TrEMBL record:
Pathway involvement of the protein, from the record: Metabolic intermediate biosynthesis; chorismate biosynthesis; chorismate from D-erythrose 4-phosphate and phosphoenolpyruvate: step 5/7
Co-factor remark: Binds 1 Mg(2+) ion per subunit.
Binding positions (ATP): 32-37, 138
Reactions catalysed according to its record: shikimate + ATP = 3-phosphoshikimate + ADP + H(+)
Chief location: cytoplasm
Designated name of the protein: Shikimate kinase
Annotated keywords: Amino-acid biosynthesis, Aromatic amino acid biosynthesis, ATP-binding, Cytoplasm, Kinase, Magnesium, Metal-binding, Nucleotide-binding, Transferase
């Protein structure tokens, strides 16, 4: 009997999708926080298309992020990122995982504020370092002391990521656990909004 009742309850994904309505869900946070990995799972659970802005930028420019930085510099990369994100948010709803610097750029952040619900995947230095030091494709971390660079970026950026609508702590547990926490937080956040 109990089993039947449980089976009839709408899944977390369905409830979060209903709460979201036409809004995009936008994941923000530092390199290695899990935006791409968690975003993909969250999108599956919501039954929404998933897009990663770094991947989309690489697709439209036919260059890697590292090549874009090397050829045109960070400023041009940010301008392209702003344009790509604006287009993606206009044609949603979808789950959008952003590049680590997107929410730090004021123009892009304003677009995200208008076009979606933002979720900051917060993580501590050791978790991030453990994840990013396995690969060396991130141009901002090509420094003498990349762990210190990551720490400097945390100090500079965390007060800005904290402006996101929702914060979820990314840590060393299964990705599905974090994805479920994102969905639960969306339901709670939108429920709170409605009672105000
Ligand atoms: N909860 C988790 N447990 C274990 N590994 C994880 C978890 N979340 C993410 N990872 C792994 O950490 C690495 C970095 O994650 P991911 O690429 O999703 O980060 P990101 O926030 O998109 O970073 P970037 O801004 O550089 O694109 C990946 O290999 C991913 O599989
Ligand atoms: O944190 C950042 O500024 C970046 C993160 C990556 O996702 C890429 O968007 C790029 O390497 C810049
Ligand atoms: Mg990513």
């Amino acid at each position: 009997m109990t089993e039947t009742i449980l089976n009839l309850a709408p899944s977390l994904g369905v409830r979060a999708k209903t709460a979201l309505g036409k809004r995009n869900l936008v994941l923000v946070g530092l390199m290695g926080a899990g935006k791409s990995a968690i975003g993909r799972i969250v999108a599956q659970q919501l039954g929404l298309p998933f897009i990663d802005t770094d991947t989309e930028i690489e697709r439209v420019s036919r260059m890697t992020i590292a090549e874009l930085f090397a050829a045109y510099g960070e400023e041009e990369f940010r301008a392209l990122e702003t344009r790509v994100i604006k287009r993606l948010l206009r044609t949603g709803p979808r789950v959008v995982s952003t590049g680590g610097g997107a929410f730090i750029n004021e123009r892009t952040r304003k677009q995200i504020e208008r076009g979606g619900l933002s979720v900051w995947l917060n993580a501590d230095l050791d978790v991030l370092w453990e994840r990013v030091n396995k690969r060396d494709h991130r141009p901002l971390l090509k420094t003498e002391n990349p762990k210190q660079t990551l720490k400097d970026l945390m100090d500079k950026r965390y007060p800005i990521y904290a402006l996101a609508d929702i914060t979820v702590q990314s840590r060393d547990v299964r990705k599905e656990v974090i994805a479920n926490e994102v969905l639960t937080s969306v339901i709670e956040h939108i429920g709170k909004d409605k009672t105000q």
